Every structure is written in C-alpha cells, then in structure tokens.
C-alpha cells in the first residue's frame, strides 16, 4: 500500500508544483460549498489521479482542490468515499494517507448526520468529541506498515480537545447553534429503523452517519490531529420519526453550510 500511496502522491506533486498543503479538508454530503471560500490554485479530478478511488454519488463532485483558505495552504476533497459505495476501508481512507504524504499537518472533516439527541435539532451543528464505530471493518486490519503508523494506535483523543474548544468558542461568538457530541458510524445506505435509532441513543450516540470514522482512525494512525463537525440534517427520535428523503437532507445541509464554513475558516486561520 505504501508504494501506491507514494506513487499517487508523486503524481499529484508533479501537477501542483511546489504547493505544499498544510491542512486537509474532507467535505461531506451537501457541504462542498466551502470550496467557494478557497482561493483555488489547482484542481484535479479523482478520475485522473492514479490509484485514487472515484466517488460514485451524483452529489459528490470528485475533485481535489488546492488553494488558500484563512491564509493557509489547503487541499480539500470535494466528494468523499463511503463503505456503502462498495469500496473497502483501505480505499476509503487512501486519500487521507495521500494528503498526509503531501504534507498536511491537520485534518478537518465535515459530514451530514441524523440527530439522536432530542436537544439537538435539525439544522444545528455538532462538533464531534468522540465516536462509536459500528461499521463492520476497520481500515487498519491487515499487515501494519510501521512507516505509516503503529500497530496499535491510541484513540483516547481521536478529536483534538483544543480544536473542539476553539470551534465552540467561534460558534458562540457568531451566535451559531453548535453542540458537541458523540457520532455513531454505521454502514448505510439505508437510514435507520425506529428500533435502531433507539438503540443508538441508548449506547451513547448523539448523531448517526455513514462516514468519517474510517478517515479519523487512519488520521490518528498517521499522527494527524483531527477536527470534525456534523450538520444535523434530520431527526431520529423514535416517538416522532417521519420519513425523510435525500433531497430534504441536502436542502438542510445547504442551508446550514455558511455557518459550518465560517467555523472551519476561522479555525484554519487560527492554526
């Protein structure tokens, strides 16, 4: 795998010249608009990058964006990969490893998720302080390459407290409703049943989604500090459960995106 990572990173470097990103950003479902805030210097389609998986979702662009944001050099994934698309965990997390090889020092992740906490409403933001992984595979299964990270990486602080606290402070200063909570990762692509929502809340979840955790595991494996934030696009409260469509989820994510963008932009500027 290391050979593939280095090969892909070398190809990208040949296309971006001496641009060395300090920050990596993964943009979740309906949240690609942050790119409008980036002073873009270069764009690469996933489909043109050797060994790079291609996003199969029509609402994920599938581009690597290089440019300036908040005075920092960034690389943003406009379109992420999911287990339910048929990729294995090593493929899903391959871009994180490549971004690390390109030089990033911090990883920022966004996603759209469903609220499990009755105090967290649709349209609110939630900074992830911890997670519960219910996905069936782990990206670190298999032979460990010590050049990438340790065999048994510590996960006592998968999301950095100082970034969480700064993010909450930025939200408060700007009158943005933003919580912190525990994210539960499931496979999807179906949304959860009434009984599943109840179970996920009982085991300690505040929000549920289908991404993020594999990338966070690999980032921690490689020693990358992580900040992750969710837009709560629907509500999984068993007593009040209503059908929800992808179109509704995308609409809520789009409406909340400017607030999420503000938090990320100010956090990155303060690094």
UniProtKB/TrEMBL annotation:
Q: Which biological process terms from the Gene Ontology are attached to this UniProt entry? A: nucleoside metabolic process
Reply yes or no: does the keyword Transmembrane apply: no
Task: Name the EC number(s).
Answer: 2.4.2.1
Q: In which pathway does it act?
A: Purine metabolism; purine nucleoside salvage
GO CC annotations, alphabetized:
cytoplasm
Using the record's annotation, list all stretches that form the Nucleoside phosphorylase domain: 23-269
* Family of this protein: Belongs to the PNP/MTAP phosphorylase family.
* Quaternary context: Homotrimer.
Recorded protein name is Purine nucleoside phosphorylase
| Organism, scientific name | Mucilaginibacter achroorhodeus
Where is the organism placed in the taxonomic lineage, from the top?
Bacteria, Pseudomonadati, Bacteroidota, Sphingobacteriia, Sphingobacteriales
């Amino acid at each position: 795998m290391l050979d593939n990572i280095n090969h892909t990173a070398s190809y990208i470097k040949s296309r971006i010249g001496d641009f060395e990103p300090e920050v990596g950003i993964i943009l979740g479902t309906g949240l690609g608009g942050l790119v409008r805030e980036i002073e873009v210097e270069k764009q690469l389609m996933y489909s043109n990058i050797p060994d790079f998986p291609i996003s199969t979702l029509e609402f994920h662009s599938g581009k690597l964006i290089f440019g300036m944001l908040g005075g920092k050099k960034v690389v943003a994934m406009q379109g992420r990969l999911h287990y339910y698309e048929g990729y294995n965990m090593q493929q899903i997390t391959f871009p994180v490893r490549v971004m690390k090889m390109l030089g990033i020092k911090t990883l920022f992740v966004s996603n759209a998720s469903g609220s499990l906490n009755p105090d967290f409403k649709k349209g609110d933001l939630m900074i992830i302080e911890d997670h519960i992984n219910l996905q069936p595979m782990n990206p670190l299964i298999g032979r460990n390459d010590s050049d990438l990270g340790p065999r048994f990486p510590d996960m006592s602080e998968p999301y950095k407290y100082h970034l969480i606290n700064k993010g909450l402070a930025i939200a408060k200063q700007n009158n943005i409703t933003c919580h912190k909570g525990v994210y539960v990762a499931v496979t999807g692509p179906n949304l959860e049943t009434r009984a599943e929502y109840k179970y996920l809340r009982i085991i300690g979840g505040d929000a549920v989604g289908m991404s993020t955790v594999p990338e966070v595991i690999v980032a921690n494996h490689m020693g990358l500090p992580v900040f992750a934030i969710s837009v709560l696009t629907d509500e999984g409260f068993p007593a009040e459960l209503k059908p929800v469509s992808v179109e509704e989820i995308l609409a809520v994510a789009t409406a909340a995106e400017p607030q999420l963008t503000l938090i990320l932009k100010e956090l990155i500027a303060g690094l």
